[in-house]
Write the structure tokens for this entry.
Amino acid sequence: MFTRLKTTVAALALCAGAAFGQDSITIGMQLEPPNLDPTGGAAAAIDEVVYANVFEGLTRYQSDGSIAPALAQSWDVSKNGTGYTFHLREGVKFHDGTDMNAEDVKFSLDRARAEDSTNAQKALFAGIASVDVVDDVTVMVTLSAPNGSFITNMAWGDAVIVAPESVGDAATNPVGTGPFKLGRWVQGDRIEIVANPDYWGDKPRLKSATFKFISDPTAAFAAMMAGDLDAFPGYPAPETLVQFQADPRFQLLIGSTEGETILSINNKSQKLTDVRVRKAIAHAINRQEIIDGAMFGYGTPIGTHFAPHHPDYVDLTGQSAYDPEMSKTLLAEAGVSELTLTLKLPPPSYARRGGEIIAAQLRAVGIETEISNLEWAQWLEQVFRGKDFDLTIVSHTEPMDINIYARPDYYFQYDNPDFQQLMVDLNLASDPAKRSEILGAAQKMIADDYVNGYLFQLARTGVANAKIQGLWPNSPTQANDLTGVSWSQ
Amino acid sequence: MRLPGQLVFGAVLSAVFLLAALVSLVWTPYGVEDLVISNKMKPPSGAHWLGTDHFGRDILSMLMVGARTSIAVAIVAVGIGMALGVPLGLAAAANRGSLLDEVIMRGNDLVFAFPSLVIAILITAVFGPSALNAILAIGIFNIPVFARVTRGGALSLWTLDYVLAARVAGKGRLRISVEHILTNIANLLIVQGTIQFSLGILAEAGLSYVGLGAQPPVPSWGRMLAESQTLISLAPHVAVFPGLAIVLTVLGLNLMGDGLRDLLDPRLRRAR
């Protein structure tokens, strides 16, 4: 009797689980966002939660990397290429019920480009001369010079539209226009978002979604296998992908990302100002070993800070080819002996594992390293903001982010006026051939200066439940866009 | 006199690991910092008796140096516990019922009340993960263990006639504690020390498993286990050997501790 009762209860529970399980999803992420304001923070994890889900910009990235209209349904460009008139969608509301209109667009852009702006990608807005409200649904943006990438710039997570009345506490309570709104944030564990019933566009198939933060490869593997997670797009244990591949319950999401994984060198550190020392470090690195050892073969070697699948990529890996003898010669030339460097590693497994391999490779040419494993918040504080490091490993997952080398105050502190001029020229150029040429020169310049050790392009090594459809196969920008995601029946 | 089998077995097991640790000071089959990625996750073979790990390092060499890490941490941690715990216990017993006794024993209770690994995690979280902080954390929790054992053993001795005789002869509490009490509870301390030693090895493995023990590239059994966990179906040997090393060492030390207790405790000897 009891057994039968139990079976019935179990069966009921199963049915209920199946019925409700189909419209929610739990996604694993390696890192927890430090806040939820994409217009005020640099961390990729912010956009990986809110981009396209909670916040939207004038334009947006699609899964293939192309740009599509979002809050602006169309735009006109003036003859001289400096005037952009955006025609906004009508009837768009923020999650708090207020209307999204031209005033909000003006506010968002002016706020991002203001003198005291905390936007992590201020360069995106640098060329804007003025933003004028024409009427409720029309905004006129005037650039100081033509900029071929302006429409792409407006698709970035850093350029999303926010409302003046809610942006104050966007760090913990993001109010956007997207198809999902924030449900609950349990710090250190997960963020839940729920469908926005008043969304202006196609309603998402999912009713809710949860982002869970797991950077430990073992825990991530266990959570996927146990079904606690439905998908893990940036899965940290590539060594176990073969097991998922063989299991019909799962599908692999293997593709490209915009993540240039680099051994960042503090160019202002006393020991590392000499380009010969940095060159020695670059030549001491065996990229293939790192890809095989840390990523189990997933990843493409890079020789500069540029994505290999981009048409303007220049293959400069030969310039910093593995050559330990040359490293030793260079160190001797520079008069350096008994060099000990700090190597501060953030939690992702590519950094922790890659760090051990690089430490061994550097030791082979006579450079000692002191490894310290940092938590993500510590890393952001000490390394990214405090610039208190010699070496670190991190993947820069923003698309087309070579312009970070034009910022002398960026954490690796590369200060080269020639490069900064190149980026000014790039922003002024709208002719594709000219842009290509400038991008090539920029890639060459940072490779010549051995600013950082360029390791590999992070592959997207994702894994998901086989029944989930619509997850992005590649990562053209930092995002976990859930608008098109659904469960197959 | 016949030695109990478990004592011999335990002592042999422990000796093997001690020997491995000592040998690693001068020689290991391969360097533990030599990463040969192309040779990763190779099963046991003639060249690598226990195979290679995910970075192509020789697992036998890693285990030998790891034994050294574990043993060093455990020895120093037990040393701290003994060096501070035994005098505290002797002082408490010598001044039974006094304010000093109360303060020492309630202080012990306080330290005892906290789950030791949680506090160890707290210590390493505050002062940063390192082998030294792991030693301190484990050491602090050995203090009350030794203080209690010492006090318990000493209290019963204080009532014995020869101690009374010593007092009548004019010996002070301090001298009696050192000359009569300590020498007579030494057996007890040796047995407890062996058990704490094995617990220290376990604690070190636990701390380095969660990344709070010895930092890379210094090999440590706990971290070897943690790093090989996702590989268990691809290359089981990478996880099995460090796991076995921990199990066998702790088993050996515990058997030795039990065997020593049977051998050294006169009451148990009579009962047999």
In short: Chain A touches chain B at residues 217-218, 221, 237, 239-240, 242-243, 288-289, 292-293, 353, 355-357, 359-361, 363, 371-373 (CB under 8 Å). Residues 5-20 of chain A have pLDDT under 50 and may be disordered.
